[in-house]
Amino acid sequence: MTEPEEGVIRARRIELVDANGDARVLIDGEGLVDGFVGIVVTGEDGPVSSFTLGVGGSVPYLHMVYGGATATVTFGADGSPMVNVRDAGGEDHRITTD
Asked: What is the number of H-type helices and E-type strands within the chain?
C-alpha cells in the first residue's frame, strides 16, 4: 500500500447524501455494478432521474435516465461512437456513424 499523500482522500466508494440521508452522488472505484466504475448523480426522484459517467472495462460512457426514457453515449466494439436511446414506451433506437 502506498503512503497517503497530504490533501488526498482515498476511498473505494464515496457517497454524498442529502439532508434526509439519501445518497445523491456516488463515486464508485470498485466496479460494484457489472464492473463499471464511475460517478452516479441522482435527482430528487432517485434513480429514475439520474446520470452516470463512467468506464466499463476500458470504454467510457454517459448514461442518463429521465422518467421512463434512457440515453447512453458510448463507443462500439470497433471504436465508433454510438448513442442508444429507449423512449418511455420501451422502444429502443440506436444512432451510429455507420
From this structure: 0, 8
44, 30 in Cβ contact below 8 A?
no
pTM above 0.85, yes or no: no
Are 39 and 54 in contact by the 8 Å Cβ rule? The answer is yes
Write the single-letter amino acid at 17: V
Residue 30 has pLDDT above 70, yes or no: yes
User: Residue by residue, what is the 3-state secondary structure of 56-75?
Assistant: ECCEEEEEEEECCEEEEEEE
pLDDT at 46: 82
Residue pair 96/80 in contact (Cβ under 8 Å)? The answer is yes
Element (H, E) at 48: strand 46-56
Q: Which of 15, 42, 17, 43 is nearest to 28 (CA)?
A: 15
Cell triple for 90? 420501451
